[in-house]
Design brief:
alpha/beta, Rossmann fold, seven-stranded mixed sheet, 7 strands, 22% strand
């Protein structure tokens, strides 16, 4: 029966797969990892704990810097993680000073060409960059895309996988591997009993019914950001957005 077949899990991978991919690159205690767009340094801390390496956690947002300092101090990793306030487009780091770059959920929002060029500059020869990036697919309608991009401050060109690949290669980064995640993480969460998708759908329904009230209370920009944030996960499940992991290498 079709229903029975659809109820069979496809064994979706979890978000920890990113660390597994990073491990295959050979990260170890003698290396320095740059976490670009580190937010509160959550990923930098986990990378240091897993691999025993040194890390530089970079982010341009002052609040993120404050949170990163607090979290690194709580983890007792101040000797292994250096925090710098910087965006990807202008890194205060020496040429060829970084062994590996970790970049998760950042590249949709930046000036891609100078950002990737900076990654290539600071990477040593043979160094590699793990980039987790969500791309638009042919299934997303133009008005849907525009709504998402405006609400989440996304650079439209950066949602094109072809543009990403061409930009990476133009700055001297070659594509080592490509791994499409698609809906896997969200399938995994649903199978584990998390209610993320159900909550997103419920919020979208409520926000649509109360749009005038919510806009009047919180403002148009905040309303659209919240609405687009809910659609982000829904569109991943529908195949309109496609999370993908790239490993780029500098020769």
């Amino acid at each position: 029966m079709f229903e029975a077949t659809s109820n069979i899990s496809l064994n979706p991978r979890s978000t920890d797969m990113l660390y597994d991919v990073f491990a295959t690159l050979g990260v170890s205690s003698g290396h320095t990892v740059l976490d670009i767009g580190c937010r509160d340094a959550k990923y930098a801390i986990e990378i240091v704990r897993r691999f025993g390496c040194q890390a530089i956690a970079a982010d341009p947002v002052p609040l993120h810097m404050k949170l990163a300092h607090e979290r690194v101090a709580e983890a007792g990793l101040g000797n292994q993680i250096r925090i710098v306030q910087s965006g990807i487009e202008s890194l205060p780091l020496d040429d060829s000073s970084i062994d590996y770059v970790w970049c998760r959920d950042v590249l949709n929002h930046v000036d891609l060409a100078p950002g990737l060029a900076e990654c290539a500059r600071v990477l040593r020869s043979g160094g590699q960059m793990l980039a987790y990036q969500t791309f638009a697919t042919e299934l997303i309608e133009p008005h849907e895309a525009a709504q998402i991009y405006t609400g989440l401050a996304i650079v439209a060109d950066n949602m094109s996988e072809a543009f990403f690949r061409a930009t990476a290669e133009s700055v001297g980064l070659t594509i080592a591997t490509r791994d499409v995640i698609g809906s896997e993480w969200r399938e995994r969460w649903a199978e584990e009993g998390r209610n993320d998708l159900a909550n997103d759908l419920l919020w979208v329904a409520r926000m649509r019914r109360r749009e005038a009230e919510l806009v009047a209370r919180y403002g148009q920009a905040h309303y659209h950001a919240q609405y687009a944030g809910c659609l982000w996960g829904i569109y991943q499940m529908l195949g309109k957005l496609q999370p993908t992991v790239y490993v780029l290498e500098k020769h």
